[in-house]
Amino acid sequence: MLEAAFNSISQFLGELFKSLLSLIKVVIRGRHRTRLPARQLPVCSVLGNGPSLNESLTEHFDFIRRTEMVCVNNFAHADIFLRLKPQNYVISDPNYFVFTEQTTDRDDIRRTLSVFLEQVNWPMTLYVPHFAKGSYLLGQIERGNPQIKPVYFNYTVVSGFQRLTYWLYANGYGMPQAQTVIIAALTLMINRQFETIYLFGADTSWHEQIRLNDQNQLLIKQIHFYDKPSDVKHEPVYSDKFRQRTFSMASQFLSLHKVFRGYEVIRHYADSRGVTILNASAKSYIDAFERAQIANTVPSK
């Protein structure tokens, strides 16, 4: 009984400390409150870049097209991007926002920017963290394509007492830790108050592609739905900018823990807002959301 009381007090003090720290961060960054556009349809589809998305797009293309679509990061590399013409696009990879005209090692970012400037001929909202404002990438987009409207979201990670953190999420003052872009996208779409959010291409199966070489270097083969598997190889995952050390196995699995824990946080937050998230991915290790079988019928507008 004494131990239970001690644990309860310890948990309360821990949540109190996290809440106070979150409020301090919000005060510092409060002027960057997220303001989101109204939803266009009651149902949306968040499309991750996992390999299983190919199967989902083949079998459920019409269903997905009848929802409000959300794509992420390098989705624009796929030919089907131009067929889908998604209304929403979320980029949270910080490498996008330090990219400049002189950058030589990120052809993927250069390719995404080229598609945005030269081929997006429909209205599309681009969601990026507030620290992206003033970056070369956003400057190019704002000057080069009026069809793309940037929306800056406040990526201040807040935690603590649930009622407080949910209020901060809902009012655009903070977000849960977005270890993946999908967590950021789901948070934004929950706050746009969709009735149902379908999740596709969220394989979350990176652990299947982890290897360790004879030098104890951590290698990962990161395959996306738009890649040719034969072109993708296991590559070292470096933990320092000098590319001398790779992440340890412990740190890699800790990162995976944060991903799955983030989905649990999102599930509870969605429930509190009356939003249903259904995992319709053809393959997925995410257990936080109910699985969905897509019928042949399409959602009504």
What does this molecule look like?
This protein has 301 residues and is an alpha/beta fold. The protein has nine helices and eleven strands. It has one domain (2-207, 246-291): sialyltransferase cstii, chain A, CATH 3.90.1480. Helices cover 38% and strands 15% of the residues. It has an eight-stranded parallel β-sheet with strand order 5-4-3-2-1-6-10-11, with helices on both faces. It has a three-stranded antiparallel β-sheet with strand order 7-8-9, with no helix packed on it. Strand 2, helix 3 and strand 3 (88-90) form a beta-alpha-beta unit. It is globular, with a radius of gyration of 20 Å. The protein starts with a helix and ends in a 10-residue tail after the last strand. The mean pLDDT is 91. It comes from Spirosoma liriopis. This is DUF115 domain-containing protein.
Secondary-structure map:
Elements: H1 2-29, E1 43-47, H2 53-65, E2 68-72, H3 80-84, E3 88-90, H4 95-98, H5 107-118, E4 124-129, H6 136-144, E5 148-153, H7 162-170, H8 181-191, E6 196-200, E7 210-212, E8 218-220, E9 235-236, H9 249-272, E10 276-279, E11 290-291
Helix pairs in contact: 8-9
Key words describing this protein structure:
single chain; alpha/beta; 8-stranded parallel sheet; 3-stranded antiparallel sheet; 9 helices; globular; DUF115 domain-containing protein
Strand order of the largest sheet: 5-4-3-2-1-6-10-11
What is the arithmetic mean of pLDDT?
91
Q: Name the CATH class.
A: Alpha Beta
Specify the oligomeric state. Answer: single chain
Quote the beta fraction: 5-15%
- H/E series, N to C? HEHEHEHHEHEHHEEEEHEE
What is the CA–CA distance across the termini? 55 Å
Rg calc: 20 Å
CATH fold naming: sialyltransferase cstii, chain A
Q: What is the helix content?
A: 25-40%
Major sheet summary line: 8 strands, parallel
Number of helices: 9
**How many domains?**
1
**Would you identify the regions where 5 or more consecutive residues have pLDDT less than 50?**
none
Instruction: Provide the CATH architecture.
Output: Alpha-Beta Complex
